Amino acid sequence: MKKPLPQSLRQLNVPRPLRVQTGAGGRPLSIHLKGKERRVRQILEVWQIDDEWWRERISRRYATLALEDGQTVTVFRDLITMGWYLQEG
Amino acid sequence: MAQLHQAPSLLFESEGKKASSPLFSSAFSGSRQALCLWLPTFELRLELVRTPELDTTSVALLSPGEGVRRTLWQVSERGAEAGARPGQLVSQAISLCPSLTLLEPDPGHYDAAQEEMVEALMDLSPVVEPAGRGRVFLGMDGMERLHGPPSRQVRAALQALLRIFPRALVATTRVGRAPGKFGAWVAAARSRPGRPVLISEGELPPFLAACPVSVLPVDPLMIQRLERLGIATLKELIALPEPALVGQFGTQGRKAREWSTGRRLDPVRPLHRPQPIRVSLDFPSPVGRTETLHGALDRLLEKALSRPARRGRSIQGVRLRALLEGGGSWSVEAILREPGARREALAFPLRGKMTLSPPPRAVEGLAVELFQFGPATSQPGFFDRKEEGGRTSGGMELEEEALPHSLREAVKELKLKLGFSPLYRVVEMDPWSRIPERRYALLNFEP
User: What is the least distance, in Å, from the CA of A88 to any CA of chain B?
Assistant: First the structure.
């Protein structure tokens, strides 16, 4: 995310920005996926990553969400920029 | 004069079979008249050019390729005044000179400057022979009509350097001109900045005779023995009968005598530099894990070996360079005893050197350079599916020969249409990273 990659090498599983409706305490209620609003049925798992404080700090709170249509997705909130992203865990 | 022993082998490294004839003969290919340009402590001075504010401080460059017990490689004048010396342990140097600024070497930067220097001097003479960083021999036969007498030749050479280096760096250049490389090198080493030493044909024997035996490019043990025997100058050396010298020191004794008398004149030979094969890889984020670097090295070697320019040639010299996080570079190189074209044979010595002397910081980019080539290899083709060590050595990667013809044709067509290969393969970047996007990447696959 920090610098452009050379054409010969492409990162896999790069986080993609995501629109998320949140409720109390920043809990995700629905996400905007493939042009549609999808309600979150359940939060299956939550974990946090804090890394690289010596370089450019990374702080993310991940969540695995079960959507109302049965699909499971992994999202995270960047605790520095406060943006939401979609990413496979 | 101690510096004369820095790299005697480099001085005459271009001696091939043709040069095995000890005496100058008209059949040689090269130039008899040699101009030697020498920039002492070239690497440290390049650092001072890059960071001018360090020029007024005590600075030392750390030795490259060392493990935990780092020593000093080159020391600035102020550092030397405070007691720091090349070869000294860092702890000793710091205790003597607490304000000493230590710099990590940046071999990529120095090599680039050396190449630039050689390129610039090629405008002056077609016969240019580098002899280590900061030292170049120019063949000056027949150059009088173009550049005038020797003093003007020197000026032209310094002008050429001024086009690429700042005046402060060029001002430190030592210049010597004499028949043969040995004479020119000794002349350069005895010169002072701005005062070149120019030796004509007739002046060479008396000039050499007055020099100490330490100028000889021979084994330092031989120098020690000569000095212990009370033979301090080349004049005293040539007073000894040749059979006695050969009896004591073998071939080195004979060569030493021939150099000392000025009978052996090593010509300057034009640089023969085959185009190196370079492949590189930029990491999305700096990598510090050795396993990841080893993996990247393997991929780069595969890529370099599969280049059409490599086909039919074996590899003798391979270099691994890294761009470091926060600037600077790191490199190791390996010269194989037996030229080969197997990935593992090339990777093994580089991995060993990387373990002994790892990059000092995280790596942002890695590059492999195949720079010395041997004859066509007779070993099984790297991509030969039928041979052990062929496809199997590539593990699970798709290699050229493993691709069905139809797919290869399809890729070719797509490449024509799109301008790039749309095939990729997954490579490990940092598989244990906690950051998911750091773990794997797609690498272009171009059959």
Answer: 8
